Amino acid sequence: MSGSGAWPDARFAALLGSRHPIIAAPMAGAGGVALAAAAIEGGGVGSLPCAMLTPDTVREQVGEVRNRCAGPLNLNFFCHRLPEAADLGAWRELLRPFYAEYGLAPSEAEAPVRRPFDEAMCAVVEKVRPELVSFHFGLPDAALLQRAKASGARILATATTISEARVLAGRGVDAIVAQGWEAGGHAGRFLGAPADEQMGLFALLPQIVDATGLPVVAAGGIADARGVAAALMLGAAAVQIGTAYLRSPESLIGSAHRGALETELAERTAFTNLFSGGLARGLPTRLTEALGPVRREAPPFPLASAALAPLARAAAERGETGFTPMWSGQSARPAPELPARELTARLAREALALLRGRE
Amino acid sequence: MSGSGAWPDARFAALLGSRHPIIAAPMAGAGGVALAAAAIEGGGVGSLPCAMLTPDTVREQVGEVRNRCAGPLNLNFFCHRLPEAADLGAWRELLRPFYAEYGLAPSEAEAPVRRPFDEAMCAVVEKVRPELVSFHFGLPDAALLQRAKASGARILATATTISEARVLAGRGVDAIVAQGWEAGGHAGRFLGAPADEQMGLFALLPQIVDATGLPVVAAGGIADARGVAAALMLGAAAVQIGTAYLRSPESLIGSAHRGALETELAERTAFTNLFSGGLARGLPTRLTEALGPVRREAPPFPLASAALAPLARAAAERGETGFTPMWSGQSARPAPELPARELTARLAREALALLRGRE
After folding, report:
1. Do residue B8 and residue A203 have CB atoms under 8 angstroms apart?
2. Measured on CA atoms in the order A22, A26, A30, A34, is the torsion positive or negative?
3. Who among B194, B234, B270 is closest to A227 (CB)?
4. Sign of torsion, CA A76 A77 A80 A86?
5. Average pLDDT, chain A
6. How far, in Å, CA of B331 to CA of B183, rounded?
7. What is the layout of strands, in order, in the sheet containing A270-272?
8. Who is most buried in A5, A255, B115, B170, counting CB within 10 A?
9. Which fold is adopted by the domain A4-81+116-254+334-355?
10. Residue of A nearest to B220 (CA)
11. Side-chain half-sphere CA neighbours of B321 within 13 A
C-alpha cells in the first residue's frame, strides 16, 4: 500500500488526513458505521450521514467507528431551513389513489423529519471531535459554524454553482465539495439557482477551483479509477464517491435498489422532488414513473416524506418497493462492486496507475 | 511542436489523421472557413458545419480550406426528420407582443430552414472527399451512410445517451461523439430520451467507452488543457471543443455574444427550445428570460426559427440582440481567448504537460 506521498498532488493529505484522496460520501439512510469504518480502513475518509439521526445516535455511531479503527471521520449535516407550516392538501390529493390501493386512511402521521444542524448537534461535534465536518444546503449560522471550526474539525461544504462556492469561500470553509449534475441524492443547492442550470462536473469543478483558490473535492459521476484520475486532472484535491460505495455490501440499501443499480435502469437516473420535496437524483421508481419525477404539488423540503412513509410501509408488507427512493448518481454501472475497504484501495491503486501512465 | 507519438494514447491518429486529438467542433452559424483552417494549422481537426449551407456553398468552403492548408477536415451534417406541417398558431401568438413592440406584422416569412443530409449533400461528400464526416441527430438512411463511408471518410456520430451509442455502434460508425450535459448548442438526441436524463460527461464518456468498445470523442464542458487531460483519463480517444473556439477571433459570433461569454452570464447557460424548436444550450437572452427557456408552444425542430427571424432583424436594426441565440457550453469562462491556431497548439501542449505530471 502506497503512502499519500505517491499522489502527484498531496494537498489532500493536510486537508483530509487520509492515505488516499477519497471520501466515501455521506448517504443518509444508506451509509452507517460499517461503511464509514471500512472506507477508513481502505485508506479513505469515512462519513457518517447525520441528518436523519438524533444527537445520541450520532454519538453512539462515532464511538463504534472509533472502536473499530483510527483514521479520518467526516460527520455530515444538513443546513436547510425548516419551512413554515405548508399546505399539504394538494400533495395528499395527488397520493390519494395510492392510499386507496393499499387501503390506507388519509394520514396525518408524521415521519421523522430531517433536522438542520443545531445547538444539540454542535454540542456532539464538540464532544466527539470528528476530523471533518461537512455541510449540505449551505452553512449553519456564524456562531455554530465558529464552534464547529473551534472543535478542530476541517469544514467542508457543498456548492452546486460557482456563486455558491464563492459564498462558501467567503464564510471561511476549508474546502468546497463541487457537486456536479451527475451526483446522486439531494443536490445541496442553497442559493435558489434554477435546477437545470446545474453544471456537469467537467464544467463546475475547474471553475470552482479558479473562482475560490480553495481545495475542491469533486463529487458526481466518479465511480471508478478513471473518474478519480480525471477529477485530479481537472484540479480537484480529492474526490467524494457515493454510488460506488452504495453497491458495497456495507451499504444499507434494500435488495431491489441494489439489484436495479446493475441494470439499464441505472442509465436513466433523474432528479425527483417526490420523496422529500427537495430535488434528489435517483433511479426510476413506481412513484416517479406514475406521477413524473417533478411535481409542484410536493411541499417544500423536507415535508414531502411524511405522507409517503405509510405508503412505503404498506408496499413493503407486500414485498413492493415503489414508494421508497432509490438514490443513484449517473455512474452506477461502471462502479466495481466490492467491499468498501477493497473498493477504496482499488480506486486508489488504479487511479495512481492511470496517473503514472501505466494502465 | 510534438508529433502525435507524444500522446500516451495514439488511437486518435488513425481515426483523425491529426497531430493532436482535438476536433474544433462544427458550430452552425459561428464556424466557417477561417476557423476550420486555423484549427487544422494548429494540429487539430477543422470542421465545417453544413446544416445551414447549400451544397454549392459546402463545395466552395471546402475548396477555400483546401487552398489554405492540408490536413483533416470534418464535414458535419444534421440527420433530423423534417416534421409534417405543424400548427404555428400558438407559437406566433406567444411572440405577438414582441412583433407589436417592433411594429412587425404577423409574418408568414420563411427563414432558411436547417435541412437534413440528403442526396445532394452526399454527392458533395463524394466529390470533395473530406477526411471525416460527422452526423448529428442520428444517422442518414443506410444507402446514404454507405455512400458517405465509401467516399473514404471516417464516420462520426453524436450520442447523448448510452442507448444512442449502442445504436450508432450497431450501424457501423467509426467513432462516437459522447455529448455530455455540458455541451453548448443543439443536443444531438435522436431516440427521444427525456432531456433531464442526459448525463454529464463524467458519467457518459466512460460508459459509452465500455458499452461500445469504439473510439469515443468527448464533447461538452472541455475548454482548457485540464479538460483535455481529464477526458483522456476517462477513456476518450480525442476531444471535441466548441465554446473555446467560439471565443477565438475566427468565430463569426456577434459582439454581444462574444462579450457575454466573458461575464457571469456564462455561468448560467441552460437548454432552450425557443430558437429552433429543438433543445440547445445557450446563454440567457431577452427572449429566454421573458418566456422561460422551454415552452411547449414552440413547434418541433427546426420550425421555430422562421417566426423569430423578423424579430432578430428588427432588433438588430436598433442595435439589440435579444432574439438571436447565444449558444455556449458550460465552460466558456475557463477557455483561453486565443486565435484558433494558437488555441489548438496551446491546448495540446498544456494537456501533454499535465498528462506527464509537469504542470
Report:
1. no
2. positive
3. B234
4. positive
5. 95
6. 9
7. A185-186, A280-282, A270-272
8. B115
9. TIM Barrel (3.20.20)
10. A202
11. 14
Cell of A325: 427512493
Residue A21, min C-alpha distance to chain B (Å): 17
Hey, are the CB atoms on B196 and A271 less than 8 Å from each other?
A: yes
Q: Using CB atoms, which residue from A182, A207, A229 is nearest to B333?
A: A207
- pLDDT tens profile A274-329: 999 999 999 999 999 999 999 999 999 999 999 999 999 999 999 999 999 999 99
pTM summary value: 0.97
Shortest CA gap A105–chain B (Å): 35
DSSP B190-234: -S---GGGPPPHHHHHHHHHHHH-S-EEEESS--SHHHHHHHHHT
- Closest in A202, A223, A268 to B180, CB measured: A202
pLDDT beyond 60 at B280 = yes
> Could you report the per-residue pLDDT of A91-149, keeping only the tens digit for each?
999 999 999 999 998 766 566 678 899 999 999 999 999 999 999 999 999 999 999 99
Angle at A213 between CA A207 and CA A214, to 5 degrees: 105
Q: What is the pLDDT of residue A138?
A: 98
Dmax over Cα atoms in chain B, in whole Å? 62
Q: How many CB atoms lie within 10 A of CB B166?
A: 16
The CATH architecture annotation of domain B4-81+116-262+332-355 reads: Alpha-Beta Barrel (3.20)
The domains of chain B are located at 4-81+116-262+332-355, 89-113+270-327
